[in-house]
């Protein structure tokens, strides 16, 4: 009881909040030092975001969303948001006069995610405190510096992509969905937050869709204020989405349908959702019982679906339909984030322990909390469970639960600690340890099972020796040209050097995918044909790396085997191997 009263007192809570912020920041300092010293820790998306920011700062037009140094002269069309580029460009512009362009980028790679992490901590604490009390709020804060998907790829040093912003926006949308007061204002705010998330990227579209479905369900059940919340949400979403599209997309592209950004198919969806919601709310004045409202909802939904189908059908298969089936099979099968969770249970125990088990454990604990509370928290459980369940379709769907996992952890842990039954307390302790110790447990598992030197991990570790800004800086000593590169090195080459590249992992160009994989894994004739086709001046590899099979041309070159049409370019002890193409 003493611990509970400590957690629940206002004084201890006020002390705990800044303490946990400092704990989060302190936990990031080792990675921050590495970022400053050699520029390591950026994923491909992190590096590409900084490239976009630098291009914008250098004068590239606001509406020009091409990466002109990928596959020149045509370039690579990007679907990312200028609303993320803009504030980072302002920060970079302010820092550049004092630190230089390269160091300014490294500082932003530290400051940007940590600032967002602090915002997420404060928002999570405030919402959890309001919904479940101070004890749950305190416990929720323990997750953020402990769970890899939040402390690492979410808000960790180097995370300059857009996912952290989306996590915060979706936490806000969840709050606007469940907070009971001022339903119209909550609905409008939720619609604006959802539209902002869509403008940043479509990754959270299922989270937004679930929020809308839950608002409709609340209306069907006759919950107080549900009609006003639904009206405000659907109207704000339908009105704000096209405005945000217009703010970052060239007017000549407004009518061009695409499936990876706001465009006519998505606008048709948000407009139809508003019209359908308006019809439901109007019908609700005359239809009062849940059964009757459910019937009207199904009828309106069916009509809306039939009308919408022609507009959205091309996008139902996902954003990769522009690629041939052969390319999808040979290239996309390598993308780790689109593999199902079951793949990792069979192949990567470390990832299961550090990334998957924590959110599964929190989901189960919070489900018990909801059952014990006779349904209280079922909306939160729906969002959390969606991420857990859909991860068995694609691993990246786990991100759907990230906005609310800390809230659920705090509420579930507080419930377990308050129970008299030993099984409940022990279960709560097990979940707490599973989450808070997930990273050290994963490291211990890998050491015990000797998974670290395995083939997949070995490849990743070898590539990481080449994937930092200091390694790329040595390329500045050679004449600028087009580099034929492995796919994972494309963005960091762009960020760390003035060279152009032939490959980057972005789906709007099948060539950008294929160039960085198949030629390196095939034979010499295939590589030479690809190099000639792209007019590349250099071929770049990571020394000692393996590209496909042991007898592939990429593997042979990485081992130092010479070829008459390629000349080694000295790079002063770098892990990179740069070969000049003879013309």
UniProtKB/TrEMBL annotation:
It comes from Paragemmobacter aquarius. The chain crosses the membrane at residues 107-127, 136-157, 163-180, 192-221, 266-287, 294-312, 352-371, 378-395, 401-417, 424-446. The keyword Transmembrane helix applies. It comes from the Bacteria. Keywords: Membrane, Transmembrane, Transmembrane helix. This is 4-amino-4-deoxy-L-arabinose transferase.
């Amino acid at each position: 009881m003493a611990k509970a009263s400590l957690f629940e007192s206002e004084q201890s809570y006020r002390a705990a909040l800044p303490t946990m912020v400092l704990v989060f920041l302190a936990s990031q300092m080792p990675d921050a030092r590495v970022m400053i010293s050699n520029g390591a820790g950026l994923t491909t998306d992190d590096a590409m975001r900084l490239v976009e920011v630098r291009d914008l700062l250098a004068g590239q037009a606001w509406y020009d969303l091409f990466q002109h140094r990928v596959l020149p002269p045509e370039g690579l069309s990007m679907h990312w948001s200028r609303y993320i580029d803009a504030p980072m460009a302002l920060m970079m512009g302010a820092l550049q006069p004092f630190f230089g362009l390269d160091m300014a980028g490294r500082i932003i790679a530290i400051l940007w995610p940590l600032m967002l992490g602090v915002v997420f901590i404060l928002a999570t604490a405030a919402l959890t405190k309001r919904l479940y009390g101070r004890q749950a709020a305190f416990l929720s804060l323990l997750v953020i510096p402990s769970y890899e998907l939040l402390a690492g790829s979410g808000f960790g040093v180097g995370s300059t992509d857009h996912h952290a912003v989306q996590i915060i926006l979706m936490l806000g949308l969840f709050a606007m969905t469940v907070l009971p007061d001022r339903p119209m204002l909550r609905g409008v705010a939720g619609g604006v937050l959802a539209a902002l998330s869509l403008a940043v990227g479509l990754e959270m579209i299922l989270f937004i869709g679930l929020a809308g479905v839950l608002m409709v369900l609340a209306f069907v059940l006759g919950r107080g204020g549900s009609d006003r919340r639904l009206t405000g949400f659907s109207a704000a979403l339908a009105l704000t989405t096209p405005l945000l599209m217009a703010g970052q997309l060239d007017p000549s592209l407004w009518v061009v349908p695409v499936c990876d950004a706001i465009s006519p198919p998505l606008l048709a969806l948000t407009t139809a959702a508003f019209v359908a919601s308006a019809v439901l709310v109007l019908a609700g004045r005359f239809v009062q019982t849940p059964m009757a409202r459910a019937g009207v909802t199904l009828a309106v939904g069916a009509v809306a679906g039939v009308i919408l189908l022609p507009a959205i059908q091309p996008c139902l298969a996902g954003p990769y339909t522009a690629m041939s089936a052969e390319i999808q099979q040979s290239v996309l099968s390598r993308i780790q984030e689109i593999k199902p969770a079951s793949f990792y249970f069979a192949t990567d125990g470390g990832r299961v322990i550090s990334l998957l088990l924590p959110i599964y454990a929190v989901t189960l604990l919070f489900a018990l909390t909801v059952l014990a509370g006779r349904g209280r928290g079922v909306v939160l459980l729906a969002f959390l469970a969606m991420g857990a369940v859909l991860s068995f379709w694609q691993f990246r769907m786990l991100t759907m639960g990230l906005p609310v996992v800390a809230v659920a952890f705090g509420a579930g842990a507080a419930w377990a600690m308050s129970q008299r039954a030993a099984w409940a307390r022990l279960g709560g302790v097990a979940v707490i340890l599973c989450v808070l110790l997930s990273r050290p447990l994963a490291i211990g598992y890998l050491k015990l099972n000797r998974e670290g030197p395995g083939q997949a991990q070995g490849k990743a570790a070898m590539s990481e020796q080449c994937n930092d800004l200091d390694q790329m800086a040595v390329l500045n000593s050679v004449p600028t040209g087009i580099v034929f590169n492995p796919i994972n090195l494309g963005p960091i080459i762009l960020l760390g050097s003035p060279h152009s590249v032939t490959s980057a992992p972005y789906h709007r160009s099948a060539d950008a995918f294929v160039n960085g994989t198949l030629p390196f894994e095939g034979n010499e004739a295939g590589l030479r044909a690809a190099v000639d086709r792209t007019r590349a001046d250099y071929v770049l590899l990571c020394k000692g790396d393996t590209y496909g099979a042991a007898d592939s041309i990429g593997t042979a070159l990485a081992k130092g085997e010479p070829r008459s049409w390629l000349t080694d370019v000295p790079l002063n002890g770098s892990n990179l191997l740069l070969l000049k193409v003879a013309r």
